[in-house]
Amino acid sequence: MDFLFDGPKTAERMLVLAHGAGAPMDSPFMQAIAEGVAASGIRVARFEFPYMHRRREGGRGGAPDPPRILTQSWLDAIEELGGSDRMVIGGKSLGGRVASMVADEARVRGLVCLGYPFHPPGNPEKTRTKHLEELKTRALILQGERDPFGLPGEVARYKLSRKIRIEWIPDGDHSFKPRKSSGHTEAENLRRSIALVTTFVKA
After folding, report:
1. 197: domain CATH number?
2. Fewer CB within 10 Å, N- or C-terminus of the chain?
């Protein structure tokens, strides 16, 4: 498995991130989060699911792998990086969702989801929250206030584990980007996100 690393090798804490469904591990969003968190002395590792690796190698599209391959990829990544003792796992959208499905089994220190896909856009009744009701791993979900995968009013109605903390990113979309008219900027929202993740990982 190929990894991208940021931050010191000797760090006490490691954050492992997987990408979203459509963009690779070195997308601008993933790069900004990884470098920002690593700047505080945390070791950050990124990896790609098999389907994204195939896209990179062959230049072709393709749907995400079946759930069993996605979850196994996460477990393999955790093992290859040396186990879960100092590790917080998570990622962007799909990457964070799959991480949330293995977090309890892997006994990691924490879970970070950057834009959780609570439901498909335009299909709010098709929720992806059942496993989050009994989650035992402490978790931080960062969600844009305009995220079509889960708006504040929708998420407030979900039954979620008390281990989950949700922080809303001002006027952010699924990648935390606000409208110009909001008075917020993408750079500000990324800085806020990095600060929240850093504090959570170090706790």
Report:
1. 3.40.50.1820
2. C
Encode pLDDT of 135-192 as tens digits. 999 999 999 999 999 999 999 999 999 999 999 999 999 999 999 999 999 999 999 9
Q: How far is the C-alpha of 20 from the C-alpha of 25, rounded, in Å? A: 8
Locate 201 and state its tokens: 């990982």
Residue recorded with tokens 């996460």: 74
Residues 6 or more apart whose CB falls under 8 angstroms from that of 157 comprise: none
Q: Which domain holds residue 161?
A: 3-202
Structure-token match 């708006």, residue found: 151
The DSSP symbol for 27 reads S
For the chain (length 203 residues), average pLDDT per consecutive 10? Answer: 96 97 96 98 97 85 90 97 91 98 97 98 96 98 98 97 98 98 98 98 96
Q: Two tokens at 130?
A: 């059942």
Report the distance separating Cα 9 and Cα 54, nearest Å: 28
Counted domains in the chain = 1
What are the angstrom distances between the C-alpha of 5 and each of 16, 72, 81? 9, 21, 11
pTM: 0.96
